[in-house]
Amino acid sequence: MTKQTLSFQAEVAQLLHLVTHSLYSNKEIFLRELISNASDACDKLRFEAINDSGLYESDSELKVKVTFDKDAKTLTITDNGIGMSTQEAIDHLGTIAKSGTKDFVSKLSGDQKADSQLIGQFGVGFYSGFIVADKITVESRHAGMKPEEGVRWISGGAGNFEVEAITRPERGTSVILHLNDDAQDYLSAWKIKSIISKYSDHISLPILMEKEEWKDGELIDPKDEKGGRQPGSMVKTGEWETVNKANAIWARAKKDITQEQYDEFYKQISHDFEAPLAHTHNRVEGSTEYTQLLYIPGKAPFDLYNREKSAGVKLYVKRVFIMDDAEALLPTYLRFVKGVVDSADLPLNVSRELLQESRDVKAIREGCTKRVLGMLEDLAKHDKLPETAASADGAAAAEVTDVLTAEEKAEAEKNAGKYTKFYTEFGAVLKEGLGEDFANKDRIAKLLRFASSTTDTVSVSLADYKARMKEGQEAIYYITADTLAAAKNSPQLEVFKKKGIEVLLMTDRVDEWALSFLHDFDGTPLQSVAKGAVDLGKLQDEAEKKAAEEAAEAFKPLLAKIKEALKDKAEDVRVTTRLVDSPACLVVQDQGMSTQLARMLKQAGQTAPQVKPILEVNAHHPLVKKLDGSPNFFDLVHILFDQALLAEGGLPDDPAAYVKRVNTLLV
Ligand code: ADP
């Protein structure tokens, strides 16, 4: 094969542009990314060699070497991992294969600042080399192939790259960075070592660098031993030394690991620039032995709502990397968790299919789920500063802060607000757990937070709500809507507002579905204010009940007429006590799907069952009173129905007909 010039896929070119233009403040991560690729390549080889030891080609000591050449101004990262064939180099280094990454690139706005924030959540991988290099040469040979089947890949990072065949006796890959003028300080062993210890200590392979020694400069006058010398310099000795701890962080004792090291490891595996909110690190012994190191991120990835998207937990078996994104290790609703599980019991050649069935994995999954929920409970407990928490009951406030030592106070301040942050990012995903994880439903329910008719921020727990319930109130009331404003101003809330009853406002898409799994909380039923008849039970006095019954009776003939006029649209028509200011609203049967959910399903292109709502009218409203005997009865009734639909964020089936009717009346 001769030299071939090929173009990057459009998305790669875009990504490259972004990487080189927005990661200036964080240049050094390129080394982390390239070492991580080298380490992945070694992991892959080790994994494939389980079934084909010939791939080791009598060189089974996997390692990464970092070298630099001051004269040529190059920095080279070499591994003896799986390597790449020519086609693989073209495919892997010239295109973006992962659909998630492609999606990500398509989301870029072109606004440098916003984009560089985004990129923090995402691994820039190989292309990060172009932050410091104006040209990259990759030489590689795939394990098991002939020396003549090597490949050289060269690119200046601008639209194209070249590939040509080379002979490369040694298996694996060298990435040669031709450093640009701003990156010459990476030609220093000290600098490289310090970056490696910051980012790559936990890489379980040895990372080797050539030892250097100080050598005095030549004598200026060769005959004068005591005379002056040329400047001295560090020279390579030909000996290699391991510069990382080569020690998986999760395998070390907790007491030997600093918070910074935990955070760094998180950043490395998550590609997040920010520290995580919390971590848990445990060695679990018993019938199944494993180590877990799990993190709660502070920021949601761009594709969080893609349930197909894999989990963030890596599986190792006795320190050998087995797979990324092992979804069997945690339920889907905890897919935001990042971390590592290292099992002592699973076989090395475990497959995804096998994982699904393994009893050990089941135990690990349960254990990890418990730990994550525990972490969240802990964050929730410390979300508020003790003084604010206590000031609810006034008197205790002063005392609580008084008894805190300075240290405790600092600790409290550090933890305050973390749960709120978590919930803002991941609350909607956590709710999926109500439908997914029945065993932990109660624990999940306690972790939920909502806005309410009396609290604008998403901060009300079901326990808070219960504690504030009115004397005689028998249910936890909630409403689901598309937006907070729609929920807050919904006609269905009117009677609750009038009576000063708090209603939880739910605006996440998942709410309706998730809440259908939560019938009660701590013995108190949950009741949607948009479903079934209003039964305020003891909250309504006798006079009110009587008035309602009388109104219903008196309205019977009118209701029959309305029902007839709306027979294609409404399941039923009845008088309600739910409304105060509005003439009408729509509700559904107790067990029915809400009109909001039906609408959402329809928008998502799914078939929703035909929901025929019930029209409820306010007997005291002038418009309703006017209906009987009106010459415009038919139009008015349809307007009433369509307006009720509009008020909850829906659209009339025939908007034009609605407009025409209203206009006729206006004229
Ligand atoms: P990622 O590592 O997230 O998949 P990269 O852009 O870093 O993305 O790398 C793209 C692909 O190139 C990798 O998935 C891998 O197949 C290949 N690759 C990169 N570096 C190496 C290497 N040192 N050895 C073998 N393959 C590599």
CATH names the topology of the largest domain as Heat Shock Protein 90
Strand order of the largest sheet: 1-6-5-4-7-3-2-8-9
Write down the overall geometry. Answer: elongated
Bound molecules: adenosine-5'-diphosphate
CA-based gyration radius: 33 Å
What is the strand tally?
23
Overall structural class, as computed from helix and strand content, comes to alpha+beta
The CATH class name of the largest domain reads Alpha Beta
Percent strand: 15-25%
Number of domains: 3
User: Could you report the average pLDDT, rounded to the nearest whole number?
Assistant: 87
- How far apart are the first and last residues' alpha carbons, in Å? 81 Å
Structure commentary:
The protein has a 9-stranded mixed sheet with strand order 1-6-5-4-7-3-2-8-9, covered by helices on one side. The protein has a 6-stranded mixed sheet with strand order 16-15-18-17-20-19. Strands 10-11-14-12-13 form a 5-stranded mixed sheet, with helices on both faces. Helix content is 37%, strand content 20%. The termini are far apart. It has 23 helices and 23 strands. The protein has 667 residues and is α+β, with helices and mostly antiparallel strands. It binds adenosine-5'-diphosphate.
Give me a quick take on this structure.
Helix 1 packs across helix 5 (112-119) and helix 13 packs antiparallel against helix 14 (441-447). This protein is of the alpha+beta class and 667 residues long. The strands form four sheets. Strands 1-6-5-4-7-3-2-8-9 form a nine-stranded mixed β-sheet, with helices on one face. The chain has a six-stranded mixed β-sheet with strand order 16-15-18-17-20-19.
